[in-house]
Amino acid sequence: MSIAVSVRIAPSLLLRSLFGLMLVAVALTGLWLLMAPDHALASHGAATVVLALLLWLACALAWWQVRPLWQVRRLEFLADGQLFLHTAGGRRKVLILPGSTLWSWCLMLRLKSPDAGGKVVVVAVMPDSVSADQMRALQVACRWQQARHIDM
Length: 152
Hints:
It is a single chain. The protein is an alpha+beta fold. It folds into 2 domains: 5-10 and 71-148; 13-67. 40% of the residues lie in helices and 24% in strands. Strands 1, 2, 3, 4, 5, 6 and 7 form a 7-stranded antiparallel β-sheet that branches. α1 runs antiparallel to α2 (46-66).
């Protein structure tokens, strides 16, 4: 039996919204540290400023690290079991690693490409990223590939 599936993955509004809310909460915590009068940390002066700056730096770094993950355009399973990831940077062959989460409502795929120096990429496929039929086809194809243990 062979499975050939090609699924276009739209950016998840749900995932982006939750991530954005998290960043706003961390940034507001940094602002609160600077603005809170009579706060226990306010008496520490420079330490409070440094802590707030570190929180804002963490927000910027988190945004920078997650930004490339939103550029995934398509996942393509060929009939012979090969998996390709299409991004804005092109098409590359990948393998689903153990530890990928395959739930009926969410797929968190750990993908590794030998072309990218062995870097592991996590692709989140949420219900608002694909249609219900495409989600099911993608789940079946992912489980099939994991069961076959296809080596690159």
